[in-house]
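User: Structure please.
Assistant: Input sequence and predicted structure:
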Amino acid sequence: MTAESTTPRSGIIAGGNWISDHVKLIDVWPEQDSLANISGLSLGNGGGPYNVLKDLARLGAPFPLAGIGLLGDDADGQRILKDCADHRIATAQLGVTARQPTSFTDVMTVRGTGRRTFFHHHGANALLAPEHFDFSGSTAKHFHLAYLLLLDALDAPGPDGRPRAAEVLHRARAAGLRTSLDCVSADGARQRATVTPVLPEVDILFSNDHEAEQVTGLKVGRGATLDRAAMEQAAQTLIRLGVREWSVIHFPEGALACSARGETVWQPSVRLPAGEIAGSAGAGDAFAAGVLFGLHENWTMARCLELGVCVAAASLRHPTCSEAVGPLAECLALGRKHGFRS
């Protein structure tokens, strides 16, 4: 018998954008040519795989964690490698290149509102290609790719006309891993052209409400105008477009998951007091980390979504993406303490 057939699968591999976030707290978002005051500076993790894996480590995930990506040969890259070592994230496939610097983002967070604006440099992430991903011999259970639409070489068309990310996801599935995908927001035409051809290789799709609208063309509303029926229709449309297991949409008021088997699960977000919100950077990845933790442990989707919104709420308490995420029990306790939205 082969090692693959006798070794129980365990662990999450995450690949894609590895980013050094340079977070700046500002007093106000300025008009062009005017001034804003910076009242706080910090360095943090950024990018889907980095955020998700670090959140999982801080949750106390009892399974292996590993990253795939490209860093620059610079101080930001060295800091990321050390941070991974400190959080038991394997880095054998986290390569270093001299061709580009480590990707970075200047995150401008308005202190009073938590709203943030990003100034991003693609850097080494632009060079990440299918040949950098090796799933041979892997006994991991899950592969998470993020962010599509921000990975130049993987967004580009491959020999079959689909974005080359489809090749990576296909190889992961062929190696026995369950796959998930997260994206960034783009205009509707580009969102549909890049995301839709990849969906048949995706077991679990994560998207926010805006991204779901851009891919499906359906208006789901926001806040008081949120349309539950339209949100469900959008999630079901993503399944019809090819998502194999679950389409998961998150938004400020909560989350929705629809399955290929016709299941629908709603989960309201934590009623976190406004005074505890320091910034929303990384909240979507924190949500994904909670859901992926539960999926790895074979929880029901309802339980996965509850953990997801609790981890997202925990992340909001610090301007960086992961510093406020604590152990699993603490995140769940935060939800019980403040309760959930109606």
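The chain has eleven helices and 13 strands.
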